[in-house]
Amino acid sequence: MLQAPPPVGQVPVSAGKILNTKPTETASGPTYEHEVIENYNTEEDAILLSTKWISTSKLVKLAKTRGLVYKKGKFSAIEEQQLNSAIERYATAQQLTPDQLNEVVFPSEGKPKDNQFWSEISQAVPQRPIISVYHHVRRTRHPLKAQGKWLPAEDDKLKEAVANFGQKWEKVSFVVGRRAPDCRDRWRNHIVGREIRVNGPWTKEEEQELTRIVEEMTVKKGGSLDDDVFWGAVSDLMGNRRNRQQCRTKWTDALSKRVKLNGKKSRWSNQDSYILVHKLDSLRVRDDTEIDWKTLSDEDWNLWSAHVLQRRWLSMKRSVKGYEEMPIREIMEILKAKKTNFDPAPSKTKRKPSKKYPSAETVHSSDECEEDEVDKREEDEE
After folding, report:
1. Mind listing the GO molecular function terms for this protein (predicted)?
2. SS3 state at 301
3. Last residue of a domain, which of 84, 119, 140?
4. For residue 141, is it left (φ>0), alpha (ψ between -120 and 50) or beta?
5. How many domains does the chain have?
């Protein structure tokens, strides 16, 4: 049986401590003392999470009033494995055929949810509320999932459905024949403003406009440049000339760093690679899908967006020959050994990248890099 996930609230070691504190040498290499908030639920709270259909607002309230601990956000690969195993065990125990199991996950209209099923599989992923498990399983097993590239005829159906129903995505989904979240994201990322959308390099005027909008939503309201903003609203304020994905990527991967450095451009260094691998090692995760990339930034090292850090990690990981077959702890140990030393002021000489395993130092961020997927808001958090 797989162990329970790492405690919620685990905090990575700070960049300042990594750079200024000599690590303790152990058999497995240098380690650092770091803060870990040991948050665990009582048995009563664990039962509450796996049996009660609690809304997001109520979960937040319970976390404040009674210290309830729960996880939110993307499910890790290990959690996916735990859920799939639990579903298979349930189907075997109940002697369900694939069609009967599908009926349990997607009951016919008017038929109530099978609470026994949802409660039992929720227990396989500790600290996940049953409502979160419900939405996740139905999303990943949806019969309309992964239908490929949108066709012009489907876009026409989508526009007609939105004209008739507004942004009521379940009704739109029925007409279009795509999942509701897919219809929503297709509409807001590709259809809205398509006629006036601009692609390619950003102009200085666009960059200044985006910076002004983000600062008004964050700093001028008493927050910081790293605060989350609603990128759909940002796109609207830019007249939808750039969509929400373009605005977010441009800001997080390029402009935010320039603003923090008063207009200077930043460049990834060997020191940054050193900090990143030791921060990730301090989390003690079992799989890199468990990493919450937004937690890695700190006051001593806050130039890099979660997206950039994730890309850098992937580059570093792929520089380890045979990484595909290695557990993450082994990859970490190899990278820690490779990143033991760094040059605070790296030479401007560029190393020729390896064709098969490019290192983190040879991969340079692009201001125009677009993410492979839209950052989707979890349905169970809406």
Report:
1. DNA-binding transcription factor activity; transcription cis-regulatory region binding
2. strand
3. 140
4. alpha
5. 2
